[in-house]
Structure to design on (370 residues):
């Protein structure tokens, strides 16, 4: 539909991509290292990129060695390769309910049994997970998105991080820590990653929200045996992540002061946009309740008027605004009360119009219901 406004996707804001710095990096790579940058490269990744990922992993969690890093084509590929190399039919994967749809699909396709664990603003309820484990459930993997969860926006608390690590050691499962939103913390604060409490962790460090998704460059760090088997799955899948993108991003990230200044800019802009949408929603759609996000890209909202989320999603599309109902993110039950809204890509005028359209769609449904 022409003029459709989207609060649906999880796209980062294109006006915040570091285009000028990337232009310099692309030029420098082509001038100085074209032969290597345009050639096939090592399966595990270009050394400079692996080294940067290992260093970043140490700055934000446990120290690791570049030999325990695999560069993947986005974290999405990291998830897929993990499922291919670690899961066999009927293995149990425990995860928050709701969870990131892209992960749910991968685990389902791998033939895993999904164990839904309730979650709240502090992330996965690890006491509920402990109760399932005490009751005899044995899982191969526990999947978490510890900062600004997609879709709920929750942040796994320190206590729960420690508890999850203890459970991993006691029951022998691996934690998959998928953390693409940690750099989008509005106050710049992030909690240390779970690998500080146990080494039974595979971390996925995406650069899609931190820099831009188009290069498809991400890192996977974990125990040596896991990295070895995922690396061999990577070789079978696509030989390597694109060499040029790795050279460009490694050069960009090596620029002194770049990352800190870039993250500061991202955080300020995202916070302002999130606050703007929060104000619009509070003023114009009082039937929508939500915790104000403290980072990440999403508002996870509850419809309090009794209108069903899927019907509202349809009416919104007809009114010219795309939103996402909660249903696709649910592992088990769906109450039809949730909507996920993204605020990142709309201008001030677009956000205002989008919320007006959301309000109009709701009024129409509420009237029809009598
Ligand atoms: N994990 C989560 C929780 C995500 O939200 C996304 C993408 N939106 C991904 C992984 C995939 O990211 P990437 O671009 O690194 O493949």
């Amino acid at each position: 539909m022409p003029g459709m406004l989207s609060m649906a996707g999880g796209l980062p804001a294109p006006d915040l991509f570091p285009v000028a710095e990337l232009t310099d990096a692309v030029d420098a790579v082509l001038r100085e290292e074209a032969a290597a940058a345009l050639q096939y490269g090592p399966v595990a990744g270009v050394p400079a990129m692996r080294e940067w990922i290992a260093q970043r992993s140490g700055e934000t969690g446990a120290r690791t060695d570049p030999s325990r890093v695999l560069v993947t084509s986005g974290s999405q590929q990291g998830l897929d390769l993990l499922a291919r190399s670690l899961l066999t039919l009927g293995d149990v994967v425990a995860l928050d309910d709701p969870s990131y749809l892209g992960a749910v699909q991968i685990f389902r396709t791998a033939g895993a049994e999904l164990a839904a664990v309730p979650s709240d603003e502090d992330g996965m309820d690890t006491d509920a997970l402990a109760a399932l484990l005490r009751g005899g459930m044995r899982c191969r993997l526990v999947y978490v998105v510890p900062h600004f969860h997609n879709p709920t926006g929750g942040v796994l608390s320190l206590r729960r991080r420690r508890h999850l690590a203890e459970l991993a050691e006691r029951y022998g499962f691996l934690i998959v820590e998928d953390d693409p939103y940690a750099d989008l913390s509005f106050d710049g604060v992030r909690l240390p990653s779970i690998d500080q409490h146990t080494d039974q962790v595979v971390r996925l460090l995406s650069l899609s929200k931190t820099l831009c998704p188009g290069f498809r460059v991400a890192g996977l760090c974990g125990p040596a045996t896991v990295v070895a088997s995922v690396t061999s799955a990577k070789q079978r899948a696509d030989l390597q992540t694109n060499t040029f993108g790795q050279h460009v991003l490694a050069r960009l990230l090596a620029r002194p002061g770049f990352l800190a200044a870039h993250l500061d800019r991202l955080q300020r802009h995202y916070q302002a946009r999130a606050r703007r949408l929060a104000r619009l929603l509070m003023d114009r759609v009082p039937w929508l309740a939500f915790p104000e996000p403290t980072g990440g890209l999403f508002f996870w909202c509850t419809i309090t008027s009794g209108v069903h989320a899927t019907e509202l999603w349809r009416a919104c599309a007809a009114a010219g605004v795309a939103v996402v109902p909660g249903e696709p993110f649910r592992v088990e039950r769906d109450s039809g009360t949730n909507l996920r809204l993204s605020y990142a890509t709309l201008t001030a005028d677009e956000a205002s119009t989008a919320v007006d359209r959301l309000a109009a769609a709701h009024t129409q449904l509420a009237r029809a219901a009598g």
The first strand starts at residue 5 and ends at 6. The chain has a mean pLDDT of 96. The CA atoms of residues 55 and 368 lie 57 Å apart.
